[in-house]
């Protein structure tokens, strides 16, 4: 009798395992998580007695949860033949289709917003771009909707961190094709092992990522920001999405103290060792990290150039002796440079003050160059990434050395040991693909009626996931004023920029599908 009972228990456990969500395809599991996230703004709306918002998020959350379970049960027994293809297709589907799920509450709550515009808004948040259609009067949106945008950007940043280690690293993609962590990519990329890695990296990165977000939110709250502003800016900083319910940190009540706190938490976008130091034998980033050194050189150099530019402009109108204006110009240039280098896009309040001091327009080209440089590999930042530029720099030094000493032997210092033999070639290929993507996006945007400057700025903003970069165009940089065709091109650009061009090329390779 006891044996029969044990047999029934084993049979029940086997049935539960057969229908467990872990056997669902990856896209379905992400849909389940997105449905669960909708309960948070529903609860916030209920606490504020905003029953429309609470009802919309609750109904959509329950609906998509049931839909996810039904679809998961329908396709759970399908076994993909090629694991690499399954991973990349799943990643593309998440970025291409999940924003449609995330956009349905926005479409139902905000009057006059089409499903296409809501899709663009949520895709921008999910890819940590931060391009928004609600920049004119953000205070008109309900607080739960701002929280929903910030949560989506925060979750998108966390997903980017986990995916790059669990999925892209075994394929030698996502920055691991030439860096010190290239050995991580030598492991098998089967679906079961990828699932185990997703769980392991989520448990390792998640507490640090969430802890830093909570720490920054508490600090901003103490500095004087309201709860919604503090939480949104903390999420926008750690995810580099730049999402803000008030238009940016320059309008936050915390002032310059809040900007200092935010600037400190830009560091996780420079080196991946801050949010996942467990993976590197608990080694924290140091100043001999090439990404940190390149960041310091770039930011300090740009800050100096911006200050000299502002000082020259102030001298023309006899304001060069204003010490307060000098200090504001220095801090505004430093904070804004770091922000755009990490592709976050927050602007300091002193950045505007320095423009008034110098009576000069915004240096959009310099900010554009910083956004193209991007942050560190395996971080939430976009752009070309600092380590790829470092690889090209070391290769350039080696080529110049060979011009004067053709028979010289390469010194294997720490800088060379960080780079695989084919690192320079891969970095150059990535840079060329990135520039080609910018050119293609510019041609598409120009066909919609935009001028050269607008096309270049919007294309770089999408491909580097730095949506606030369009603000350098002034009134012409409003996403809400763009036609639907331009928004569609920018949506595709944001997906390519978040997945990176090498991943997209691998996905579009015909040989990849014939295997």
UniProtKB/TrEMBL annotation:
This entry's Gene Ontology molecular function terms read: monoatomic cation transmembrane transporter activity
Which Pfam families does the annotation name?
Answer: TrkH
Where is it localised?
A: Cell membrane
Transmembrane annotation, as ranges: 24-46, 52-76, 88-110, 146-168, 208-236, 294-315, 327-346, 366-391, 426-450, 486-508
Q: Which GO terms describe its cellular component?
A: plasma membrane
Specify the protein's topology with respect to the membrane: Multi-pass membrane protein
Q: Which GO terms describe its biological process?
A: metal ion transport
Keywords associated with the record: Cell membrane, Ion transport, Membrane, Transmembrane, Transmembrane helix, Transport
Which family is this sequence assigned to? Belongs to the TrkH potassium transport family.
Identify this protein by name. Answer: TrkH family potassium uptake protein
